[in-house]
């Protein structure tokens, strides 16, 4: 009865009536109901009815409101709705795009949001949307996404050739949809190294921060970690700042005060809906090249939709038209290899026609290794995301903390290297059986 009453009363409210106070009120009612129904094991009962409450909390979220995501993102459609042209070289075809972006992650989404100011853009993403997935949307479900190994999960688990366990994003928004949500700016030296214009970079930072970044509130655990970093000499304390500076600081977070995640996919709302098309569940098979000239020229992309049907997207026959690969450190070389660009010998072994022999494609993969210490606290602690950063001048490390909300909460203090390293953990310590043995459930 309480649930029915809640739904009925909520149904009488209009979007303008939904205030943070009302949202918090109904959150309290929902949690109170969980305890009253089964006071002996409320967490077990909540787990059994997780889908309903995830849906209800999704409705109560201030950033989603009562609007369906199609109202805010009318240009997002399933790949099966795409109509391809019969020829890649047709001039003036209405289905040709100035830019085709492969991969809707933290690089692809802002590109797809800004390029449509002047150009027609097609964004292809192999996963679905994050807006309707409660495991992506809420901090309290952060660990569920990473533990989900199903084919429809927003994260895709994999093991590297040297035995290191990891996960790739398989959802619009990319890594910002499955990570711990910590936000910080790059170092000035990094910007200078790549020759980027500092003024434009700073303007871009502000554009992103205004839309999806928030100032976090520290928990007692995180305040204790902050004090510990200062005690061991990682100073000075810089307070809250986005800047990349030595010492200890409180960085930004993409989780708002309600625990709702704001991903790079939300940046797409800034795009021109008349010149932007986003296809989800579109798995790119290869970039198609015209090899009749002196050098190969990208003319389109072949992908398959959610039903397995192969589809072709073409580039407009314009000088500035490009296919942009933003599929990450693993996805980009993968697409290049499938497209015939890479070491000639390897491509022939895979029966892939060679478009361009390049021995460097698919080599030199590096990652940022992390060491974690797990422990069980006395009492239950609330879910936390990465909010603290300790950056000593003598070693490139980050010091962070994360918690998972469950009947018996486990905590991890982690040290993450800022400098990429080749996988260094011995395979016998990083097998899938070893991972399952120690995985939290």
Automatic annotation (TrEMBL):
Gene3D superfamilies: 3.30.410.40, FAD/NAD(P)-binding domain. Residues 169-192 form the Glucose-methanol-choline oxidoreductase N-terminal domain. Keywords: FAD, Flavoprotein. One of its GO terms (molecular function) is oxidoreductase activity, acting on CH-OH group of donors. InterPro entries: FAD/NAD-bd_sf, GMC_Oxidoreductase-Related, GMC_OxRdtase_N. Its cofactor is FAD. Pfam families: GMC_oxred_N (PF00732). Belongs to the GMC oxidoreductase family. This is Protein HOTHEAD. It comes from Quillaja saponaria (Soap bark tree).
């Amino acid at each position: 009865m309480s649930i029915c009453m809640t739904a009925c009363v909520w149904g009488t409210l209009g979007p303008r009536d939904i205030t943070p106070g009302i949202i918090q009120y109904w959150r309290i009612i929902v949690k109170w109901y969980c305890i009253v129904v089964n006071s002996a094991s409320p967490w077990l009962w909540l787990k059994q009815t997780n889908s309903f409450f995830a849906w209800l909390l999704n409705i109560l979220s201030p950033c989603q409101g009562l609007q369906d995501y199609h109202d805010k993102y009318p240009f997002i459609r399933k790949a099966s709705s795409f109509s391809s042209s019969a020829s890649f070289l047709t001039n003036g075809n209405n289905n040709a795009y100035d830019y085709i972006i492969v991969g809707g992650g933290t690089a692809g989404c802002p590109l797809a949001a800004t390029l449509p100011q002047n150009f027609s853009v097609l964004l292809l993403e192999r996963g679905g949307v994050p807006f309707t997935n409660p495991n992506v949307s809420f901090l309290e479900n952060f660990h569920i996404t990473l533990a989900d190994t199903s084919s429809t999960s927003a994260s895709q688990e994999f093991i590297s050739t040297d035995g290191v366990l990891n996960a790739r994003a398989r959802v619009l928004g990319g890594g910002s949809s499955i990570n711990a949500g910590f936000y910080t700016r790059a170092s000035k030296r990094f910007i200078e190294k790549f020759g980027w214009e500092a003024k434009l970079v700073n303007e871009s930072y502000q554009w992103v921060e205004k839309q999806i970044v928030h100032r976090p509130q520290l928990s007692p655990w995180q305040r204790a970690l902050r004090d510990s970093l200062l005690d061991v000499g990682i100073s000075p304390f810089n307070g809250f700042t986005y800047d990349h500076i030595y010492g200890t600081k409180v960085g930004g977070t993409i989780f708002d005060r309600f625990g709702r995640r704001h991903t790079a996919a939300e940046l797409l709302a800034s795009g021109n809906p008349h010149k932007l098309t986003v296809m989800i569940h579109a798995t790119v098979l290869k970039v198609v090249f015209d090899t009749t000239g002196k050098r190969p020229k990208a003319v389109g992309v072949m992908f398959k939709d959610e039903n397995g049907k192969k589809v072709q997207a073409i580039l407009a026959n314009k000088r500035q038209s490009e296919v942009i690969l933003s599929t990450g450190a693993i996805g980009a070389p993968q697409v290049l290899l499938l497209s015939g660009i890479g070491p000639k010998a390897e491509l022939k072994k895979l029966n892939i026609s060679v478009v361009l022999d390049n021995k460097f494609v698919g080599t030199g993969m590096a990652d940022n290794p992390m060491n974690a210490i797990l422990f069980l606290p006395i009492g239950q602690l609330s879910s936390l995301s990465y909010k603290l950063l300790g950056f000593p001048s003598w070693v490139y490390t980050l010091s962070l903390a994360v918690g998972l909300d469950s009947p018996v909460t486990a905590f991890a203090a982690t040290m993450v290297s800022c400098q990429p390293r080749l996988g260094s953990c011995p395979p016998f310590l990083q097998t899938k059986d070893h991972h399952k043995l120690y995985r939290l459930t």
